[in-house]
Design brief:
The protein is an alpha/beta fold. It has nine helices and nine strands. The structure holds adenosine-5'-diphosphate (ADP) and magnesium ion.
């Protein structure tokens, strides 16, 4: 579905943010991308979307960009449009008639659990409901590839859990390939087929890749915890912490010791 080869990108004249990034995403895969804050995860997604041009390397997408959906941490709903019209907007842009777009938008709002909320404006919805409108907006466009940048970071734990379970269901149903940036290791391990770790920047690249056994995902979705999960999460945590150096913390320890 997606292949990144030898990507190098720098902003302005600075040291490259990304250097030599190699990544392959198979069709139907659910991949999570984790890495230290500021290492270039969002930048990488922008490169895939064609919003940022790499100085070196190639992005090969097997689908046209209009079949790529995006879901971000902050929802991009228009405050002056109600839920129905927010979802319908993308369909109208794709050329659907007003009537058909409204009907489709209502069907999608219903399937994300928001039947009866069609006329509400974003400020009249909870954070979780707004996120559901955003999801309906993206899914209505029937993407083949879905890119998500910490999509559930602003939600509380319970809403987040339900949202993720539903999302997994929709993604499987529509056979959508997913690349999700997350900082939550447990979440990454419980939803993904593959977890990819980026090294610290500058010159961040893919440091390691981990295959997650399908049996583990199944048990998590049933509400259980697979014994392997803790081991994989601990391993990722270990790898991630070797990437993150916190000079101010080391400094403080030294000062305290002095
Ligand atoms: P992440 O999403 O992993 O937290 P980002 O991709 O947002 O990281 O940022 C990676 C690095 O690039 C950071 O050091 C950030 O300050 C820098 N950066 C991001 N966007 C820009 C920009 N538009 N211009 C210059 N530097 C940027
Ligand atoms: Mg980011």
């Amino acid at each position: 579905m997606l292949a990144l080869s030898d990507l190098t990108l720098s902003y302005n004249e600075e040291a490259p943010v990304l250097q030599g990034v190699q990544l392959a995403l198979r069709s139907g895969q659910f991949m999570s991308l984790i890495g230290p804050s500021g290492c270039g995860k969002s930048t990488l997604l922008r490169v895939i979307m064609g919003l940022q041009k790499p100085q070196q390397g190639r992005v090969q997408l097997q689908v046209p960009l209009d079949e790529v959906g995006f879901l971000f941490q902050d929802d991009a709903l228009l405050p002056w449009r109600n839920a129905r019209d927010n979802v319908a907007l993308g369909l109208r842009i794709q050329g659907m008639s007003r009537r058909q777009a409204r009907l489709q938008a209502e069907a999608w709002l219903q399937s994300v659990g928001l039947a009866g909320f069609e006329d509400r404006y974003p400020q009249q919805l909870s954070g979780g409901q707004r996120k559901r409108v955003s999801i309906a907006q993206v899914l209505a466009l029937q993407p083949k590839l879905l890119l998500m940048d910490e999509p559930f970071a602003s939600l509380d734990a319970i809403v987040r859990r339900y949202m993720i379970e539903d999302l997994l269901h929709w993604v499987a149903q529509d056979e959508i390939t997913v690349l999700m940036v997350t900082h939550d290791l447990n979440e990454a391990v419980s939803v993904s087929d593959r977890v990819v770790l980026m090294s610290n920047g500058p010159r961040a690249c893919i440091k390691s890749e981990h295959e997650i056994p399908a049996v583990m995902r199944a048990s998590l979705l049933e509400g259980g915890v697979h014994p392997e999960q803790a081991r994989i999460v601990a391993h990722l945590w270990q790898e991630l912490s070797t990437e993150i150096q916190l000079p101010h913390r080391q400094q403080r320890t030294i000062t305290e010791a002095a």
